[in-house]
Design a protein that fits this description.
By secondary structure, this protein is mostly beta strands. The chain contains no helices and twelve strands.
Length: 123
């Protein structure tokens, strides 16, 4: 599975931004996918994750009510819709996916990663 992320940029507090992630390869084997982020000096953390069945989901408390993860399965694409951005959202954002049948929010359990796309929110 190959993942290609895009859409980062410099925005102001309160702005919206939409990240995209295009998936290719053996996408039929994917069990879960979603978005992680890593701010300077901090560990990588899960932002929004969803199993392909839709049964399992995770949303970080810090983004609840502001971020959403609409998906377009016909194009093997995944998005991260970010609204009402704040400076604390500044980070490298990664899309990721995993195979298998185990639900997890730990970055180390995800096998496939897109390149990071930088989101910078100015105050």
């Amino acid at each position: 599975v190959q993942l290609q992320a895009s859409g980062g940029g410099l925005v102001r507090t309160g702005d919206s931004l939409r990240l995209s992630c295009a998936a290719s390869g053996r996408t039929s084997d994917i069990f879960a996918m979603g978005w992680f982020r890593q701010a300077p000096g901090k560990e990588r953390e899960a932002v929004l994750l969803v199993s392909t069945s839709g049964v399992f989901t995770f949303t970080a408390a810090s983004v609840k009510g502001r971020f959403g993860i609409p998906r377009d399965n016909t194009k093997n694409a995944m998005y991260l819709q970010m609204n009402n951005l704040i400076p604390e959202d500044t980070a490298l954002h990664y899309c990721a996916a995993k195979n298998g049948r185990m639900w997890t929010e730990r970055p180390g359990d995800y096998e496939y990663w897109g390149q990071g796309t930088l989101v910078t929110v100015s105050s």
